[in-house]
Write a structure and sequence with these properties.
single chain, 16 helices, alpha/beta, about 350 residues, 8-stranded mixed sheet, about 20% strand
Amino acid sequence: MRITVLGGGNGSYAAAADFAGLGHEVCLWRRDRQQLQPLMATRRLGIKDAAGRRDVELARVTDDIGAAARGAELIVVPTPAFAQEDIALALAPHLADGQVIFLPPGSFGSYVMMRTLRRAGSTADVSIAETGTLPWLARKHGPAEVAITIRATRLPTGVFPACNGPHAFAVLQTAFPAVEPIEDALAGALMNAGPIIHPPLILMNAGPLEHFETWDIHNEGTQPSIRRVTDALDAERIAVRQGLGYSGEHFPLSDHYNNDRWMYGDAHQRLVDSGDWREHIVLTEHRYMTEDIHCGLAFLVSVADWAGVPAPLATGLLALASAVCAKDLRQGRRTLEGLGLAALSRAEMRALLARGELP
């Protein structure tokens, strides 16, 4: 399959490397030409995992997003949520009917990107899917090398609009056999693990993060009291899903620590043992804050308020992060209010998710 991967981060490099290794025709796009030069020169990307180290060859490496999008059956966008609107604007003139865009994860970016595409004049019949986590736990080890510690084994995924689901899932499952269809894009957004695992880890480790040069929030930063907070926060997420009528599995985050039923399988100890997450984190600037709280947690709190489901812990953590950042994050652009959707009834929201007819 022809797959285009957008972005220059850990997830984008992992995606490009894995897809190329599986025999797909892969194009990697990154807007920063200077940073892309080492890969543009050779088109060879190094990959390290449990099987050892090897090189794979990409079909194309480019900073031209039009060339990258042209002919792609699947466009994978493992970028931060706050980059989704800019990427959609850049993509808008180049998309064609039938293309599938995948956001792993999305923070309701499927709706955000579709709205941006339509406002930019794109009429292409595309599908935008989002899932609950990045399919790889990975870190770049150089300008042309990525280390993959873990690959996702289960990816609960919703599609916007849901009526495009049969086509979208046929494409997605060719690239990601781990994809599991769920009801719609809001169901997919409410599977996002980042706004559950990362806010307690960075806010409750704020002292060590600001004191030590490096700190591993998944190792010494994950203590029993923090785990209890994470479990309670996840219970609020699940309550919101249930309050909106979503059924089936809710992928409780406790499974990540306790067994192999979560999205990464039996992963937590391997993540800790890798050492790749002992890093320097600037609390107000890291994507754990700017993506998982500014976008993801703010979105969760707004959906809970809209649905009438109590979420006091999520609300409190968002208030604490607002104080840390000196900014009212409840008023952010990725809330239902900021998206102009807070006045919708539940029936109107269901119709929007099913047919994609934007308000």
